[in-house]
Amino acid sequence: MPINPHPLPHPVLRSIPREQHVISRRDISPNALRVLYRLREGGFGAYLVGGAVRDLLLGLHPKDFDVATDATPEQVKSLFRNCRLIGRRFRLAHVVYGREIIEVATFRANSDDGSGDRELEDGRLVRDNVYGTIEDDAIRRDFTCNALYYAIEDFSVRDYVGGYEDVQARVMRLIGDPETRYREDPVRMLRAVRLAAKLEFTIEPATAAPIPLLAPLLGEAAPARLFEEMLKLFLSGHAVASFEHLEAHGLLGALLPETAAALRSNRSGALRRMLVQGLANTDARVAADEPVSPAFLFALLLWPAYCRALAGLQAQGMHAEEAQRRAADRVTLHQVQTIALPKRFSLPMQEIWLLQQRFSSRQRKRVFRLLANPRFRAAFDFLVLRLAASDSHAADVEFWRQAQLSSGDELSANLEAAGAAGDGEGDDAPTRRRRRRRRRPATASAE
Ligand code: ATP
Ligand code: MG
């Protein structure tokens, strides 16, 4: 049997008593407390673990509360009527209270006992169901700050890997040998930058160093999992910081290869400016509790790729409308190989792109049709965002802003007046000017 050159660290318990840490039961979800107490009454060890303990120590409000225990999933199920067992790769108990789910996981070990309950494929973890002790459970977690346990029996925080100090110092540190841990699960690279962005932590040098080299491994991660991570990276209120961290650690090219290439070749930096502006708007919406949509997000993230593909097709002499459709399809098709963007998001994303060309029309019928399009608002917001890259369509933004404020009659009258004034766009008859406009290269490629 080969000897592992990078054994996991030896766990050493440090217990932080209640009076030396800030976690109060008042800040813990009552349902999570119920689960902890019931497990304890059943004779089992019961701990709050992971992100919740970390967030509570930082004075943040955890969005979910996970519990770790030495009870097996079946034993957990026998204690709760409202419990269901889920997962194959990672078997878990969900205790359900209305809309709140408390996830209860049995302590797991990181060692292979040969039972087939833990499977590695080319160093990657595909199944992880070997139960173990709390020490085993602590060292198989990703970062030290995520491996802290709050014990319901004495309200202490148990730390086996130095996580408590790292939380105080606001440091992300991988447990064990970073390269081995990233090879086991490349998504940990994304978790490192995501949590650093969200918590305003620094990534300690040994944890950061292998990331640019191992970034290509993300290409082999499950596309559905990467989609979920993308939503967490960009729709949790820290999109700008996430983007900057991904760029700084060489991960952007692995996630969004065509966008990364387009940003590199866009010397003026206009596309990057627009992207960052759009992400800042997204963060502001999350902060204000306004809805954010994955379709709009991906329209933004892939816009540089779309512009580049479109420019390429038009340079080959393809007609604008055909080129737009082809560029949208091509970019989507390439991207879904890495990130499983579901059709219910990719279709509206493409619509947002394709509608951009229609904003230059002042033809009455087209104006009204566009206003009535269910995707009008998203497409218009996108048009406004494009001002961050170029003001070549500032007049269009103004026109459509007014159009939304006007009544139908007012708008008709305005369009007619503009038509009568001779700019050739007010009626339905084809004019020289409009024909010229249609042949104009797509606005997208002008940026
Ligand atoms: P968030 O605030 O985004 O929920 P989190 O740390 O709670 O952050 P979860 O995905 O909810 O993230 O995971 C819960 C815990 O499970 C983590 O804190 C960590 O201990 C462990 N964990 C999650 N993903 C991994 C992984 N890929 N490898 C090892 N441990 C992991
Ligand atoms: Mg969590």
Automatic annotation (TrEMBL):
E.C. numbers: 2.7.7.19
GO function term, MF aspect, one: poly(A) RNA polymerase activity
Entry annotated with the keyword RNA-binding: yes
Domain of life per record: Bacteria
A Pfam family hit: PolyA_pol_arg_C
InterPro entries named in the record: NT_sf (IPR043519), PolA_pol_head_dom (IPR002646), PolA_pol_I (IPR010206), PolyA_pol_arg_C_dom (IPR025866), PolyA_RNA-bd (IPR032828), tRNA_ntf/polyA_polymerase_I (IPR052191)
Domain Polymerase A arginine-rich C-terminal, residue spans: 316-439
Annotated Basic residues bias: 432-441
Catalytic reactions of this protein: RNA(n) + ATP = RNA(n)-3'-adenine ribonucleotide + diphosphate
Keywords, sorted A to Z: ATP-binding, mRNA processing, Nucleotide-binding, Nucleotidyltransferase, RNA-binding, Transcription, Transferase
tRNA nucleotidyltransferase/poly(A) polymerase RNA and SrmB- binding domain span: 201-262
Active site as annotated: D64, D66, D142
Residues in Poly A polymerase head domain copies: 46-173
Chain segments carrying region Disordered: 411-447
HAMAP family: PolyA_pol
Function recorded in the entry: Adds poly(A) tail to the 3' end of many RNAs, which usually targets these RNAs for decay. Plays a significant role in the global control of gene expression, through influencing the rate of transcript degradation, and in the general RNA quality control.
Family, per entry: Belongs to the tRNA nucleotidyltransferase/poly(A) polymerase family.
Name of this protein: Poly(A) polymerase I
Organism encoding this protein: Pseudoxanthomonas kaohsiungensis
